[in-house]
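Chain A, query sequence.
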Amino acid sequence: MPNPNSEDLIFELALNLIPKIGPSLYRNILAYTGSARDFFDLPVGKISKIPRVNKKFAEIRKDKDQYFKEASGIINTCQKKGIKILTFSSPEFPARLKVMDDCPMVLYTKGFIDLNPSRSVAIVGTRNATEYGKNITKKIIEDLSPYQTTIISGLAYGVDIVAHKTALSTNLPTIGVLGSSVDQIYPAFHKSTADQMMENGGGLISEYPPGTVMHPSNFPRRNRIISGISDAVIVVEAAQKGGALITAEIAFSYNKEVFAVPGNLLSTYSEGCNNLIRSMKATIYTGPKDLEEALSWSKENPSATNTKTKMLDLSKYNEEEREILKILLERKELEIDQIAILLNVSISSLASNLLNLEFEGLIKSLPGKKYKLTQ
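Chain A, predicted structure.
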């Protein structure tokens, strides 16, 4: 985590607080200026030349003391409450999120939490889970135990809370993505489960700073984070409308693996899953073998990836080439711009190194400017 007292953190939070600077524009500013600090120091004439930035945003900086004061207040509150602040440039920031166009630029977390696990699966479903839904949720997570998978969900009633509790009972780390701030557990009834999650290798994550007033729109928005930090999303039970289907739709748009548990044709809470399968936005989930095949998993310890990396004899390659190989070992295949974001390098530099690795026969290019390992 960045040092809570560092000026860099204050500048990044202040930039994030400026109205109408969304994720795309925020990244544009960082790419052009190099840092949030430099954005506040650039002359008006230069800042207005940044793509998609006009004089309006340059003039907003005259109110920078207001944003610095608010950012400082957030940092102080987080220190007192034991909340970590992760900005987009933080090493601990979830790499899976960085490739999202609507990625939040600041996250707040609590617990001993790894936001870049080797494997992660989101389990979502209706708040009105049936006994069938609850039992299936337990079975899915128990089956995932040998794969040492981090379980992601939303800490809501129904399928979510069953997923978190079952992960705890099977010693799997579990992360709750909140539509509230991490210092305000909602629903409050799940606070004891949240505390256990934070003590057992998991924790809570939110894009909302402490003290944020909860709004109904927060909860659909948080579903993009659930999808984004997961390798796959499994929908257990869902009606025709609801948060679980929103999460599935978002995951589908991110080209994530989406699975749905088929259900009773007469059950209201099977309609959403059955429709996802029928519309081919989700693959039917029948067991852990489905994940194995889709994600190229095995029951070996995920850390075995490091062994495979060593077997490639990476010493003959430069640092950026080594990082490319490591990422492709973990993520199967990625687009060139996704790799650039994850490595924080320019496309031109990356293209050169990808070409070298392709000549070496280690990677191959795919349609859509994607790359994957040849072995």
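Confidence is low (pLDDT under 50) at residues 1-5, 304-310. The radius of gyration is 21 Å.
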